[in-house]
């Protein structure tokens, strides 16, 4: 069966990176059933022949008007599709969509009619914000890292930058590879416009990864693998903290002076 990816190596590489990441999310236990979503801006990989392709569906309302997405194309995980299946066959469990000229609808273009994630308005709202600020970030990943979600059940960790400082202090790599820390968004209904707005507000504070209380995390990055790596690194710190506590002690963590030294040496933003 032919695919839109055939003869388009750059686009195929982008979609295959999503599939690889989806496999990691499943293997980590962060993507139960159809949990989690990935949306990637693939506009740079779109050629003239793709632009001329007819839509497979009538325009579908996004629910919001997103003017910065005019002319944009995205690969999206399908609604009610499993990450483990997306890893095996990304075009049967996701789709390529384009935003219509009114910036308020999308059309599915390929490979088949797989409706995008129900959280598409949230993801596209974030991409609209990123483009508006001139960011080179193309990927958004939402998943459910077990240890980070567990930590979000402790109200003490939900104060601004408390969890950031704790996770940074567990191992030097966390501050080096997640220098903007972890934003916190109080619990809100999954997929709601309120959650999308709160996430964008957190990103405006210069976070790249945002914790949704008692739900999961949302990360943005230049590519899907970088988004995964930040979540993976933060989660490793959470596991170190948990394991130390299970041994019967609260870990000291690195000192402020030690973390400041890392910031200086690596020229980090915070």
Proportion of strand residues? 15-25%
Overall radius of gyration: 19 Å
CATH architecture of the largest domain: 3-Layer(aba) Sandwich
Q: Share of helix among residues?
A: 25-40%
Average per-residue pLDDT, rounded, comes to 96
User: If helices are DSSP runs of H or I spanning 4 or more residues, what is the number of helices?
Assistant: 10
| Helix/strand order, N-terminal first | HEHEEHEEHEHHHEHEEHH
Which of globular, elongated, flat, extended, rod-shaped describes the shape? elongated
CATH class of the largest domain equals Alpha Beta
**What is the total tally of β strands?**
9
Q: In terms of quaternary structure, what is this?
A: single chain
The major sheet is characterized as:
9 strands, mixed
Tell me what the structure shows.
With 270 residues, this protein is α+β, with helices and mostly antiparallel strands. It has 2 domains: 1-133, L-fuculose-1-phosphate Aldolase (3-Layer(aba) Sandwich); 145-270, Class II aldolase/adducin N-terminal domain (L-fuculose-1-phosphate Aldolase). The chain has 10 helices and 9 strands. The chain has helices at residues 9-27, 48-51, 83-88, 120-132, 146-151, 162-168, 172-177, 193-204, 224-246, 256-266; strands at residues 37-41, 60-61, 73-77, 94-99, 105-110, 139-143, 182-185, 209-212, 216-221. The chain has a 9-stranded mixed beta sheet with strand order 2-5-4-3-1-6-9-8-7, with helices on both faces. The longest helix is centred in the C-terminal third of the chain and has 23 residues, at 224-246.
């Amino acid at each position: 069966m032919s695919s839109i990816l055939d003869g388009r190596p750059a686009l195929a590489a982008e979609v295959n990176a999503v599939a690889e990441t989806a496999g990691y999310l499943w293997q980590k236990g962060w993507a139960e059933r159809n949990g989690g979503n990935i949306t990637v801006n693939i506009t740079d990989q779109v050629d003239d022949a793709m632009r001329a392709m007819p839509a497979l569906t009538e325009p579908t309302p996004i629910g919001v008007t997103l003017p910065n997405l005019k002319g944009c194309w995205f690969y999206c995980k399908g609604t009610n599709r499993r990450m483990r299946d997306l890893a095996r066959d990304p075009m049967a469990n996701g789709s390529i969509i384009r935003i219509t000229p009114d910036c308020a609808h999308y059309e599915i273009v390929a490979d088949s009619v797989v409706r995008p994630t129900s959280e598409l308005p949230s993801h596209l709202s974030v991409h609209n914000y990123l483009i508006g600020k001139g960011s080179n970030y193309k990927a958004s990943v939402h998943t459910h890292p077990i240890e980070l979600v567990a930590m979000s059940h402790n109200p003490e960790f939900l104060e601004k930058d408390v969890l950031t400082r704790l996770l940074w202090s567990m191992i030097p790599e966390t501050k080096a590879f997640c220098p903007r820390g972890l934003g916190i968004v109080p619990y809100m209904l999954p997929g709601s416009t309120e959650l999308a707005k709160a996430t964008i507000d957190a990103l405006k504070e210069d976070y790249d990864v945002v914790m949704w209380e008692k739900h999961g995390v949302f990360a943005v990055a230049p590519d899907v693998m970088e988004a995964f790596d930040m979540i993976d690194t933060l989660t490793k710190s959470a596991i170190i903290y948990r394991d130390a506590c299970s041994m019967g002690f609260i870990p000291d963590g690195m000192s402020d002076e030690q973390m400041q030294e890392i910031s200086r040496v690596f020229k980090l933003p915070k």
